[in-house]
Amino acid sequence: MDKRNTEEAIMRAAEEEFLDKGYKLATTTKIAQRAGVTHAMLHYYFRTKEQIFLKVLDKNLGELFAYQRNTMVLGTSFWVTFSGGVSVLFDFFKQHKQLLGLLYDVVKQNPELLLRYKENVVDMLSHVSASHQKMLESEIAAGRCNPISYEQIIFQVAGMTISTFLLLPFVENVIKINEAAIDELLERRKEEIIRTLHYRLYAHLETEA
């Protein structure tokens, strides 16, 4: 196994271990076993469990923000761009259902990890956030949508999306519905979130019209 393939194998194994066990219970020994490498080989590529975790986080958030940047198409309306971004965010977490649970676990038990990662997240968010915020402010100034702060609309997006996926294990394990029904439920939930945001931004104007 060459260097690139070895590192990729360790990364895949680490992601599986963190998602299955959580950060606290995951061990570099188990990650090495999953990857099919020796413990010494794992530490040749990654000195600590924390370093591997942050690398896994980099990979996932980098993928998310790459998708988000693709929604920023010149000449499209604010709503098309914004709703496209919300849809991409929801679909990303639909494909990575355990990720939010892992992050929530880390916030509770090892918050210093994410504090050290804060600067990376701010850098990743800055471009997309600045563009969306400028478009929203222009829409409000032109009277094309209801007044709301950018922070509040993002809080609504995050709250509705995060709560959906944090509650999903309850639905899967307690209510016991199959995968096809879960997919259908999530698609309906995404549509409901987008409708709720549209109502918040445009309902008053549409009523007056």
UniProtKB/TrEMBL annotation:
Domain HTH tetR-type stretches: 4-64
Origin species: Candidatus Gallipaludibacter merdavium
Gene3D superfamilies linked: Tetracycline Repressor, domain 2 (1.10.357.10)
Molecular functions per Gene Ontology: DNA binding
Residue ranges of DNA binding: 27-46
InterPro entries: DNA-bd_HTH_TetR-type_CS (IPR023772), Homeodomain-like_sf (IPR009057), HTH-type_TetR-like_transc_reg (IPR050109), HTH_TetR (IPR001647)
Coiled-coil features, chain-numbered ranges: none
TM region positions: 72-93
Protein name, per record: TetR/AcrR family transcriptional regulator
UniProt cross-references to SUPFAM superfamilies, sorted A to Z: Homeodomain-like
Alphabetical UniProt keywords: DNA-binding, Membrane, Transmembrane, Transmembrane helix
Hydrolase listed as a keyword: no
